Amino acid sequence: MQVRKVCLLGNFYVGKTSLVRRFVHAQFDEKYQTTVGVKIDTRVVEVDDQAIKLVIWDIQGSEDVVLEHSSYLKGAAGFLVVADGTRPATLEAADQIYRKMAEQNNRVPTVLLINKADLEDEWRISDQDTETFTSRQIPVFHTSALKGSNVELAFTTLTRQLLDK
Amino acid sequence: MSSFDQLKTLLFGPEQKRLSKIDRRVEDLEKSSSLIAEKLPGAIREVSDDEEFLASLDRPVTKTLHQTIRRDVNSFAEVLFPVMGPAIRRAVADAMKNLVQRINVVLEQRFSVRGMKWRLESWRTGIPVSQIILQNTMLFSVQEVFLIHRESGIVIGQAVRNPVTALDEDAVSSMLTAIQSFIQDSFGGDRNEVLRSAELGDQTLWVINGPAALLACVIVGSPPRELRDQLMEQLESLHGRFATRFEQIALHKMQDEELNRTLELSLLEQSQETEKAASWISRGFWLVAALVLLLALIWWGLRVSERRQMQQTVVELLNRQPGVVVGQSGWQDGILQVQGLKDPLSPPAAALLQQQNLDPSRVATEFKPYYSLEPEMLARRLALHSGLANAAAFQIQGNALRVTAPVTEVQANRITELIRINPVLESVSFETVLRPDVPSLGDRILDRMNAPDSVSLAVNDGGGTLSGTAPYQWIVGSRGEYAEVEGVRLDWRRLWPDELENLLPEVTRLHETDILFSGDLTLTPEAPATLERLAEDVEYIVEESKRRSAPLAIRIIGATDGIGSLTYNQQLRMRRARLVRDELIAAGIDPDALLAEGSSVQVPSGEQPELRRVSFQVGY
Asked: Which residues of A are less than 8 Å from B185 in CB distance?
């Protein structure tokens, strides 16, 4: 079985931890995130009859973290960048994060998750706004950690990209 | 040649020549470089010892190395890591050895409970103290080893003795990597400064860092510093053999048997067997010591118990005895010391102990005499003073005495007298008092004379004969006054003075001895010797009685048989007595104490040789 480290990045309160909770059976207490700044969970995903173990680093905080704790990103095979559909600023932060990340890690598979799809009425982000990502061949998913929609899809899409590499 | 070619030659002739010249040179250069490439290795080999060649290479090679290292430090570190580690460690180990020796000396001099324990163990086993300390401080077991890919935090390999972690190993190793990064980021500092260890209770987590992977070891016990070096060696060896495959193994989670086998070598352990063996010896030692102590305790306990038992028995026995009061008792130097009071009439303590089969030599008594008022002792005392042999005849209840044996009136009076001065007894009753209806004549006479009890009187037709003993003065004073009482003539000669009791043997001998005659005044052949012996007794009697103020007189009585006339015989009797008296006087005896007289006893006529004699009578 293959193993890959993936990092979950994004601004505060975009719902990263809720997304992971949707996706995995929790390994560590969430207090790790507040103390160490990272919480790690694992899950085995099956894609195209192939099992792959994802070691998911749920990294706390803003875009600064990419600079502050850049070592957290080392060895990562993929990234999940998360933004909050109700807060355009989080998409800007996601853009910055991605750019800084890309500087350090060449062509690492990435997916963008616009979370809180359950509050789509209050969304202030349009497809136009995510064009910067789609132009970079980065898949964009509208997810709801609350309802679980598209969460599996986002993760499996990233996983498939990891396998291709 | 065509006109065009001619024109070309005219126009470009010199250039064409130059061009073909250049062509040739290029061709030559290619030829010669391939020639050089072919020859270069051999040529270099040939000049490899040439000083000039080496000097010319020095600068470019150094420069190239500098540049390459500056461009890619990690690659170099990775390559050099397996080589440099051991070399550095060896140098450090040499330095450490000296330090450890110094530490040992300090430890050897150190004074602590633990140190003392180790010292004692060293003394007992003969193993140097430093070795004991090492033994005691090096007990550990590496329980679990993870080889973790440094970048991704994914587990490359794992060896487990007893699984300690309950979580997914990748999650754990990633978290560990994250914490490692967190610490590095939080406390800044050098990238090469890394988390080395973490402790939780008895478990220690050691992180051994390599350039491409790190070794996380879960250790139980107290790992010594040397273990880190050993683990480092393992990591170096892993890097040396598998570094190129680390990433591939990580990403594909490949089970590399060889790697895992190598990793298992890291499950190091310092066996506790030696300590266990030692502790068994120690346990044996303590067991024997405890046994000896137990036996000693039992022996001591038994001895104390035996002594206490004996003390109790002896004290009870003595206290039970009438006339004995035990004040205090205790053991001293193996002898039971008993102190108290004892009535002299009570039997000796040793006799009592012997009766109870107790060893009198183990008991020392110290009794002060006292006068017991216990009924038994009162009875014994009354029996003694009353002349009544049986003490059981005296029955005491409270302060009343009852005498069960028959007593004479005299005894009853005496007992009554004794009761009067006794502080306990107040009344006395007699079962039987022997009271003669009419007092005998003899008793009446003795009463009248106020004779001592020791005097008895036998009355018969001829008169009364006094016998027994009495004070000399009483005898001398009374015999004149009471020559005849109530018509009975009394014979005082058999009464003997109390004071002269010790002369009785001599007196008896004298009374029983006769001096015999063969003719009128001729002694028998044996007589002189008899007389000589007799003189000694006479002298002793005379002198001793005088000394005791009760002077005695010796009557020398001459006798004859019935031959011859009465007158002649009377004279002969006197003459025989005088003859013997003279002999005694000649022997030095006071003449005043010697009285010669002729016997007035009538004798039958006829020859009777045994009557031809002189006999003696002692009187006063």
From this structure: 68-69, 71
